[in-house]
Amino acid sequence: MNQATKTSSRGSPKREKEKVRLSLDISTEANALLEKLAEQIGGTKSEVLRKAIALMEVAVEAKRQGKKFGIADKDQQLATEIIGL
Question: HSE of 82 in the Cβ direction (CA atoms, 13 Å)?
Fold first, then answer.
């Protein structure tokens, strides 16, 4: 993938991944949830979506490997299995 080059504050070049702009139609309820999540993480709606994509990638890979995907309790026992991904 192509990467753009920018200069850091120290003058050394740094690589930045090329971005693609998307247009997305979602319900007002989904947008409200997206805004709430962005506020909770102290980020933007784009950051929430990027993190969601990363989480989905982990879930899909776990399923491909025959593993379970979920939320563990304090003792590392699977408390909630997330299915349907």
Answer: 12
- Residue 32: pLDDT above 80? yes
CA angle 35/46/23 to nearest 5° reads 100
Nearest to 38 by CA among 28, 48, 29, 30: 48
User: How many CA within 13 A on the CB side of residue 28?
Assistant: 0
3-class DSSP state for residue 62?
Answer: helix
Q: Taking a C-beta distance cutoff of 8 angstroms, is the pair 70, 80 a contact?
A: yes
Q: Residue 9 — very low, low, confident or very high, per pLDDT cuts 50/70/90?
A: low
What is the model's pTM?
0.71
pLDDT at res. 16: 76
